């Protein structure tokens, strides 16, 4: 149909070619809008890429995402085959326990009595409608109130430390778990509740996360989406000609820079969002029967490990690694350590995790260190306050990103979908 008969079609520039920006471009182009993607890098992907290695793939950031119908549909459209994590990875997930009654690597660190107590407390709070987080309530306070001290200390605090890289004492309960207790309101929420993914749990493109962006770029090219690479745009304090829109799909600091002239107060608040530095160390060695098998292990804050956790990459997606290879991804917070210091800390953590001292086999065949000085936002009470008072963007500007209350690729995808659905049909 001619564009003249579809007056709501718009010319939209999407700034940022990471996961958020390319997905926004996909959904906008699907609706017939004229889309241009602008990014400072030459290739799409942002933090996420897959680096080839003779013994297997190295993921620079996310190694997959939680299966979701929206992302399964997008994968089908762009020609990406999604594969689930292996059976052993789905079955075996560990937490390092500091409880003398159940010390060390545990699939469930609570005792029988503690588990029963948590279950009764959880059921009571669900039945009485007290599970939802309160405004400005820390995740620690929410956990103590709803699931009790043992579960908060041994399970919740360890799990979120490995995901959000921060202790429960500073994290916002509303930002971390609030979405699980929101009432259905939007059309997206209603569809999300009815739809069920074909796969379950963690999934990834068959050839790694980098394949997602390669195929996405090819698909967007075929749909007439234009790409402007190696370019950092500026937004001027003049009204954008209707119906042109700008979708800012970047980090909070970059969004603050882009809105400095067009929305000074919005820019100021975005600039105050704190980002966390993360380091990953991808380690390859020869496999051994003594290697633990599963998805990985998260470490309790009081356990004394240098790392937040480790993913056993060659167990999660074994088809992507050479036979006889043990591939691990160690996750550390901070970026001030030298490569030698990171190697030493990973080696000591690994020896402790395996319960053996350093051996010749423990010497890495190769290790690749990836540093992200500004990886993702700190989901603390300050961010909750900021989001509650964040000014509305000017007409013609849309913000999308992991700093707006949703972390994880599947959740960001839902955020983008909701923004797209808000546009007139």
Question: Can you describe this structure?
Answer:
The chain is an alpha/beta fold. It is built from 15 helices and 17 strands. The strands form 4 sheets. A 7-stranded mixed sheet has the order 8-7-13-14-15-12-16. Helix 1 runs parallel beside helix 9 (209-222) and helix 1 runs parallel beside helix 15.
User: How would a textbook summarize the main sheet?
Assistant: 7 strands, mixed
Can you tell me the CATH architecture of the largest domain? Answer: 3-Layer(bba) Sandwich
List low-pLDDT spans.
none
CATH-defined fold name of the largest domain: FAD/NAD(P)-binding domain
- Describe the global form: globular
Rounded to the nearest angstrom, the distance between the terminal CA atoms is 14 Å
DSSP strand content: 15-25%
Q: How many domains in all?
A: 2
Brief write-up:
The protein is an alpha/beta fold.
SSE topology sketch:
Blueprint: E1 11-15, H1 19-30, E2 34-38, E3 50-51, E4 58-59, E5 65-66, H2 69-78, E6 82-84, H3 87-91, E7 93-99, E8 102-106, H4 112-127, H5 139-146, H6 149-164, H7 173-177, H8 187-194, E9 202-205, H9 209-222, E10 226-228, E11 245-248, H10 252-258, H11 264-271, E12 275-286, E13 296-299, E14 309-311, H12 313-316, E15 325-333, H13 339-354, E16 366-377, H14 381-389, E17 397-399, H15 409-421
Parallel strand pairs: 1-2, 1-11, 2-10, 7-13, 11-17
Antiparallel strand pairs: 3-4, 5-9, 6-9, 7-8, 12-15, 12-16, 13-14, 14-15
Helix pairs in contact: 1-9, 1-15, 5-6, 10-11
